[in-house]
Records
---
Amino acid sequence: MTDNSILLIIGGGIAAYKSLELIRELARRGVKSRAILTKAGTEFVTPLSVSSLTGEKCYTDLFDLTDEAEMGHIELSRSADLLVVAPATAGLMAKAANGLANDLASTTLLATDKPVLYAPAMNVRMWEHAATQRNLATLKSDGALFVGPDEGDMACGEFGPGRMAEAIDIADAVEAYFAKASNGPLTGKRIVLTAGPTHEPLDPVRYIANRSSGKQGYAIAAALRNLGADVVLITGPTNITPPKGVELIRVQTAREMMVATEKALPADCAICCAAVADYRPATETDHKIKKERGGLTNIQVTENPDILKTISQMKAGRPPLVVGFAAETDDVLCYADVKRKRKGCDWIVANDVSPGAHSAMGGDRNSVILITEKGDEAWPEMPKQEVAKRLAERISQQLAKPKLVSAAE
Ligand code: CTP
């Protein structure tokens, strides 16, 4: 993504430090920031740290006539593609909801003709107060966008919703906004993607699972979204935050994943990135299996549906492009290609998950081989985000080809 810029309004809250990280995270993603720091905000971060990171002047209420001549507040409010308020304190939200303009931040919010994304940050009681909830509803009905707040331990020692979303999640929401606003090569294409592990219950407290983190699948969902695709992400249980701007369906078991995937079709492309459990316990009891009765010494299993194979071999409504993954420990290329043919998918992304290889499972990097009907390509080891970007670009090139051409290949 290039050439997009935001105007960041940093309110006065302890979460203001995360806004510094946000500026850096956005810069990494090619989004330029210019910032306004409220008077209360200057109690938490300094204009110097903000301007060092944005590489631009930081505007504050000390904004004087010289500044006004340089860039008037009206121009400032319209200079960016998106306004981001982070931290959006209860006070800032109240002012914006009521059109109050008595300082640079609130004046800018009233004068802008650009969309505004708020990342609320406040004490849980302030967040839950009827007045804040009223302001939230008003801002939403005025078209404002929101990310967070998260739930968790707060700087004030309390627990609950009110903690500002992490910088990475706000950056994700900004990227999702720009992806929707621009016409990417995948605009109008629907892509269904499975990710993460599945949990196959044995009894109310135990399940069979695997080491999949969901990182690679989530990164692919974000990369496809960034190219403008409508992404349906069907995910098993993970500990990571799913990307914003995609339709998220959470499931636990392989059977639930199968049902959700079939329901999400038709699509232009299906990507099965999930590490689906091949087997599930033949019986799931509604009581805890007791050791004394020897219940866990012999677990009977039954085969789960194969989602990739089912979609690949659909008689009607098969997505024009079906992509599978193959995590192998030996003879990666050979086993993966056999798997592609056996399952009937178009492409397979193979990776080596043997103990000697770098840890793709759970790790942040991946080294894959893309196997298509035309042959195989080994990609060098790179971050999972880069693998995702490259794969998304390849998918967009493939979907752009006229159908007759791809059928003749
Ligand atoms: N897959 C699936 N449903 C299953 C099993 C696997 O959709 N029940 C998909 C995975 O999402 C992946 C591909 O099939 O895209 C390959 O998964 P893998 O576990 O490597 O293949 P298996 O068929 O389980 O083969 P094996 O375990 O024997 O290597």
---
Amino acid sequence: MQLEGRVALVTGAGSGIGRATADLMAREGAKVAALGPEEEELRDLVREIGDERAIAIDADVSQPDQMERAVRTVIDRWGSLDLVFANAGINGVWAPLEELSPEEWDKTLAINLKGTFLTVKYALPYLKRHGGSIIVTSSVNGTRMFSNTGATAYACSKAAQVAFTKMVAVELAPHKVRVNVICPGAIKTPIHEKTDRRDLEEVQIPVEFPEGQIPLTHGAQGDPMQVARLVVFLASDAADHITGTEIWIDGGESLLKG
Ligand code: NAD
């Protein structure tokens, strides 16, 4: 039980990586606040974990008032907050730059980047009390892979999350709050079906590899639980000298597709 006695806030907990991580954190002993817009999925998750050790929070990470309220809900329920997994995100619109509207750009940045800022900002006063661990979900896109032409807003938001992590890791080190960022490659989650792809054939440059796109798996996507295990490690005391670091979890994908 690596996370016994800890209280965790997981954003984007309704599906994919967030859901797998909320589940694993609970099995490792943490109490989990599962935040996202999917009421039914979150209710199911809370039922699975047990309502003594999990709560569902309906909030939008891009809205300051909702995130402030979300953190207050956690404190009212359990009195402390030790772990934050800032994971909620969207692929948004992938399109040639001239076709991408300013509103589409803003939406991706508001959820992925501002959402990370707000999640961490409102949690901080409580994390600082006893120290803690923050893990941010970035991506291979924008950090070690730049061949996903059209995913510009997404990649920029993900690159900025790495800078955010490093800035804040230094700022929070005196408070014993560690901040790390994970960069997954292709993981089998619903995010791929939600991507709004437009006219990408106009800008994408074909890339072909003889042995498939993910060296470690001959092309198969990763599993959300593989990512959850990394997050639990970073959240735990086993990672107590690790801060300000990005870790790619992609089976070597981004080494080929950079
Ligand atoms: P997902 O779509 O299954 O999960 C994303 C979650 O974020 C969903 O529960 C969604 O409802 C939630 N969310 C979206 N907008 C929100 C908002 N405004 N407020 C609160 N919650 C919101 O996809 P996933 O693959 O599990 O994605 C999780 C994170 O992993 C994202 O940040 C994504 O960019 C990143 N990522 C995923 C992959 C992949 O291949 N799946 C690769 C690299 C990075």
---
Amino acid sequence: MDDPSVPKLLFSSLALDPLILRAIEETGYTEPTPIQAQAIPHVIAGRDLMAMAQTGTGKTAAFTLPMLQRLLPHASTSASPARHPIRALVLAPTRELAIQVHESVVTYSKNVPLRTTVVYGGTDIKAQKPALMNGVEILVATPGRLLDHVESRNLQLNQVQILILDEADRMLDMGFMPDLKRILALLPKQRQTLLFSATFSDDIKKLAQDFLIDPITVETARRNAAGENIKQSVCMVDHQDKFHALVELIRSRGVKQVLIFTRTKLTAAHVSKQLERSGIAADAIHGDKTQQERIKALDAFKSGAVMALVATDVAARGLDIDQLPLVINYELPTHAEDYVHRIGRTGRAGASGEAVSLVDGEEERRLVEIEKILNRKFPREAAVVPSGYQKHFKSPPVRSHKHAPADDWFSKPYEPSASKKHDEEQQSSPLAVHGKPQQQVAALFRIRNSQI
Ligand code: AMP
């Protein structure tokens, strides 16, 4: 995260209260990330802010820490709900992101008597009511559920001093504009507004124009989007060979954790199931899973019980997983900007990471779109597919999964026993660029076995 244009700073020089500094120290951060160094002083000074920052840049702390600093004069140990009106509202597009932002607020505010809670859809609304009725200074919410609570008169927004829109571009993509307008109409005009977005599209600029006053603009995402600390590559593969190329890729890297992206829920579920059948502990998170199932899958992934997490774009928004070494795009995203969000899961906060995209002929159009927004061109490498699994040596017609016959590549598990022959062949193959010794492959399967 070193950016020569940003002078090195210490958290202690950022005018944060010792109680907040202590919480930062306890998390183990040594210095602010560029977005934090740039945003925190302005937010403490009360300015509106428009920040271009994607997940992985430290953006959550960039708004949470100065928000806490500004709310500190209102911190109170009083039991009276009236002493705890909502003073800061953080809006996030998805439940996952809302939960993770809330967790960060809890972490950074642990030494100060400021209350916080989170509300999101898909769970029992009644269970969220008591925390609201008791009073909270900081509310993290998804827009739809927030409005449900407004309608049920479970909360009031007329004392909000700070509004934070996190991943605003995603909120617009997900069609939250009408909800946002309704919410904004309920807030005091005199307030501070912070807008965080991975991209500055015309729609985002318009949103900022309408709702921010003379904002400071900070931009740090480009460096990360260009992937200086993320090794990005593109492997071309026939559609029918994709699954086996995926398994080969995972095996060859010998990593303990991999996040795999698909475009559809169906593919996410299939890929996860097939990985399990191939001996790789996997789970999927997508829109058809309940909140409980998603949390369970995420926890299993974080703890290492599950090695491969297969996710759709929406389900993966805001996932905060430290030190994720590898992201694989099993399918390229529909929206090119999502590519940036996806690869931002690796190479976080300065760590190095790798992102590999498995691209078939039908997806080249999408790849070109991604290259346009990144302003770079990827060399097209050939994916490694074990020879026993190659269905097509020449470009085949592309089939969709649902038309594939039952005995096709997708339902044929990858058997580790086939790997020996494959490894031998790899050594003489010009395609064997990602070959790893047999011991690493064995280690991979030991990980799996020790975890079930
Ligand atoms: P975010 O961009 O908010 O999703 O944060 C990405 C990751 O960076 C999270 O795991 C944070 O815990 C971590 N992080 C945030 N600030 C710092 C910092 N100053 N130093 C090291 N890690 C950080």
